[in-house]
Amino acid sequence: MHRDFSQIALPGRIQALWMLLAFSIAPELSFAAETSESLDLTQHWAGYSALFIFVLAYTLVILEERLHLRKSKPVIVAAGIIWALVAAAEVQIGTPGIAGEALRHNLLEFAELFLFLLAAMTYINTMGERKVFEVLRAWLVSQGFSLRTIFWLTGLLAFFISPIADNLTTALLMATVVMAVGGSNRQFVVVACINVVVAANAGGAFSPFGDITTLMVWQKGMVEFQEFFVLFFPSLINWLVPAVFMAFAIPKAHPPALDEYVALKNGAWIVIGLFIVTITMAVSFHNFLHLPPVLGMMTGLGLLKFFGYYLKRRDEAVLSFLNQQSSEKSGGHPQPLARPFNIFEQLERAEWDTLMFFYGIILCVGGLGAIGYLALGSQFMYVDLGPTTANILVGILSAIVDNIPVMFAVLSMEPDMGHGQWLLVTLTAGVGGSLLSIGSAAGVAVMGQARGVYTFFAHLKWIWAIALGYGASIWAHLILNAELFQ
């Protein structure tokens, strides 16, 4: 199965998305926690109603694939209802206006996330349109590698590309290679797709830009940029342990190479260079100038738009010449030719459902925090159970529920725990989604790509091996980074 990767939008149940997607959980979120302490609504009718609304909305999100209902719709409605309930309760108690202030802080958080994601998605879409991903895919399928070599190559590339790009895009790219090479070999396609999903999620866990949850922790200031890389070996173990077991299930076959060649479009390398410059600006603005990283991303988007203007004018000149040549050959009736490059078309292809989903989730979780439920959760998990147990459970929970609201809730609770524990929850939230096919954006996207072959139950057969990797990665972090827990 061949697929034009330039047409792949960043879909679905993103755990978001790109490894370059960031957001800043600002200290102002503690305002919601303070509000919840002074106005505990957890036993109030408004608190019970808000919790019911959130559970109902998130149930619809989980059933997205079955209901074909975009995930943003229920959470947007739920967010409005939850904050209306909070405000109504405060009016009844006699303290109106507090909810409005807390809501404004949540909206500021969403604005930063929205703009960062929009810039990141536009870059990814532009690189796809310039055939960057398609060239890599074509090279892999044309080399005539054995199935076992493809299994290890796609896993290795997924592990090392996802920290720079993102786990979703990387998994889609590698799954396309797996399906092109595997063809009708169902056994190989299933195992290789699982391997790609696990590797992409593991690779994203040791980089600030590898997963949205790592970006949350970095932006919050819990872990410095360079400190994430101590998770490299635990993340590597998380992928290698199940990969070693799964490799024995790969058939010994050597399929013929596919005769395919794809050339990069004009300006592709410059787009890649601008992408690197934009990442550098986002990191530098945050680390050295103490400015929100979104400023660096939006500045980089502006540079991409300038280059897009050059590409458009160049294409217009080329197309004008070709139209003239075609008109002369056809007696004044030129044949229709391709349209010139338009940067706003790449911007339009951003995953708007995902962007709106984040709006709903941020406001829903913020509303529950204002009511006081996050304070209760923090007490139970990080005081009663202890931080290590709690952080391990966060990873398991992220396999069932999207890891974005889980990590958002943890950061909003802001439990008092050491540096090693913050790295642990970063690791578990990043790799825990691999336990189930629906536990990560990469898994959901690949299920759509290999529909009917890579399924929930096909993935479930290997959960024992993935769970071993999950446990081994936690053990490795506790041993290798023991000094961080002191």
Automatic annotation (TrEMBL):
Residues annotated as transmembrane: 42-63, 75-95, 107-124, 160-181, 188-209, 229-250, 262-285, 291-311, 356-376, 388-411, 423-450, 462-480
Subcellular location: Membrane
NCBIfam families, alphabetized: NhaD_1
GO BP annotations, alphabetical order: sodium ion transport
Originating species: Nitrosococcus watsoni (strain C-113)
Name under which the protein is recorded: Citrate transporter
Coiled coil: none
Domain Citrate transporter-like: 58-430
Family: Belongs to the NhaD Na(+)/H(+) (TC 2.A.62) antiporter family.
One Gene Ontology MF term: antiporter activity
Presence of keyword rRNA processing: no
Membrane protein topology class: Multi-pass membrane protein
GO cellular component: membrane
Keyword tags: Antiport, Ion transport, Membrane, Sodium, Sodium transport, Transmembrane, Transmembrane helix, Transport
Organismal lineage: Bacteria, Pseudomonadati, Pseudomonadota, Gammaproteobacteria, Chromatiales
